[in-house]
Amino acid sequence: NDPLIFKNIRSKALCEIIRVGDSLEKSALQLQIPVWFLAAGNERVVDLNSTLRVYAKLGAPFKKLKIFEDFRHEIFNEVDRQIAYDTVLQAIEQIVEFNSGKV
After folding, report:
1. Pairing relation of β-strands 35-40 and 63-68?
2. What is the block-wise mean pLDDT of the chain (103 residues), using blocks of 10 residues?
3. Closest Cα to residue 63, out of 98, 89, 88?
């Protein structure tokens, strides 16, 4: 009943999302920057298996994956969203350490 939740998506937007997703999956091996993936475990919008497949293919020199098991699609809008924000801070710190040669 929330008026801010839209259950429809325009076809052009959907086609672009699929195109970019396919492109990312194909180029994942070539990615050479540090990467953190944050994903919702109770995801109903994005296919979590696709996320895991892309993560597994990543050629990044430093990569991490964090799945918030009880969270839904918008991890930064959850009741416990501070956990997601803390994880982002941790990610930034670890990427900075990696880039400085400390990890």
Report:
1. parallel
2. 73 83 74 87 87 87 93 92 95 89 68
3. 98
